[in-house]
Design a protein that fits this description.
Number of domains: 2
Largest sheet: 5 strands, mixed
Structural class: alpha/beta
Radius of gyration: 19 Å
Mean pLDDT: 92
Shape: globular
Low-confidence stretches: none
CATH architecture of the largest domain: 2-Layer Sandwich
Order of helices and strands: EEEHEEEHEHEEEHHHHHEHEH
CATH topology of the largest domain: Nucleotidyltransferase, domain 5
Oligomer: single chain
Distance between the termini: 21 Å
Number of helices: 10
Strand order of the largest sheet: 3-2-1-4-7
Strand content: 15-25%
CATH class of the largest domain: Alpha Beta
Number of strands: 12
Length: 326
């Protein structure tokens, strides 16, 4: 029996997990990301938490996989980040090998999340699957016949940075009008804050759920208010759902996968988000171009990228990808 470490570094949260050779999650250490701490703070957290999990393991930890919430240079196994400082051209896989003494494989969180869901979650049994993560940002991982499809420049799946409007704001990538500026968690929070400045009487519940401070409105507080029936919050989510439905229809028309799996923190809203997405898909679709692609929520929830990181580590040691065809 061999164990592996999975690491998921995100713009909002980070997680370090211990997994067995069948992809079973044994222990997880997680917390909120301190963005102001930058790279050094995060690396200290990863080092300490990995050491604790390794010490608690009943069997030898053989390898590590890392999911990173930002651009990844796969060839050099380096990362850069558009969400936090200090990561530019940083050789994260090399750092893991030198500091944790483990072989390491690195990929972005969308690809990792897709691999995790395909192996152990809602993608099991499918031949082609697209995982869409709606969180701090928006990304996707394309899985075909069990393998991640990356494209010539490793840019396949960057749907969050497709320009969908000329009138949108500047995206974190530097582009304008990207999908991410309309329906990411960041965009939902910003729209809630905008409502609070213009129509405070309509978003009082959202502000209350945000600790009474309009400037602290998050996607989570908007989603919670919508689940309670708050009309303003529901409208904000419906606006985001319409943009997301457009993107999903593009995926269906271009890729036509067996299944689209929605993951990430915002997707945890469940039916509050998925129901209007399905409504708008029907509205935007064409009766002459039908499809059978399933659109489902992730089974692994916020842990999809962590499971994908573990899957990458297991591949390094040649462990069988349990659950891929179950």
């Amino acid at each position: 029996m061999n164990y592996v470490i999975g690491i998921d570094i995100g713009g909002t949260h980070f997680r370090v997990g211990l997994f067995d050779q069948d992809g079973g999650r044994l222990l997880v250490s997680e917390d909120a990301t301190l963005r102001s701490g930058g790279r050094d703070w995060m690396l200290q957290q990863v080092r300490e938490r990995s050491r604790v999990l390794t010490e608690r393991a009943d069997y030898t930890v053989k390898a590590c996989g890392v999911s990173f919430g930002g651009p990844v240079d796969l060839g050099r196994q380096q990362v850069s980040s558009i969400h936090a400082p200090g990561w530019a051209s940083f050789p994260l896989a090399k750092w893991v090998r030198e500091n944790l003494n483990l072989e390491c494989c690195l990929d972005n969180d969308a690809n990792a999340g897709g691999l995790g869901e395909y192996r152990y979650g809602a993608g099991r049994g499918s031949h082609s699957m697209v995982y869409v993560t709606v969180s701090t940002g928006i990304g996707s991982g394309l899985i075909c016949d069990g393998k991640i499809f990356r494209g010539k420049d490793n840019l396949a799946g960057e749907i969050g940075h497709i320009p969908v409007s000329d009138s949108g704001g500047v995206c974190s990538c530097g582009g304008r009008g990207c999908l991410e500026t309309f329906c990411s968690g960041t965009a939902i929070a910003r729209r809630g804050q905008d409502w609070a400045s213009r129509r405070p009487e309509q978003v009082s519940r959202i502000v209350e759920l945000s600790g009474g401070r309009a400037g602290k409105i998050t996607a989570k507080s908007v989603i919670q208010a919508a689940a309670e029936g708050n009309m303003a919050a529901s409208q904000i989510l419906r606006e985001s759902a319409r943009w997301l439905a457009r993107a999903l229809l593009i995926i269906i028309r271009v890729v036509n996968p067996d299944r689209i799996v929605l993951g990430g923190g915002v997707a945890q809203a469940g039916g509050v988000l998925l129901d209007p997405v399905r409504e708008f898909l029907e509205e935007l679709g064409s009766p002459s171009i039908g499809y059978t692609t399933e659109i489902v929520l992730s089974e692994l929830g916020i842990y999809s990228p962590l499971y994908g990181a573990a899957a990458m580590a297991l591949d390094l040691i040649g462990a069988a990808p349990a659950g891929a065809d179950s």
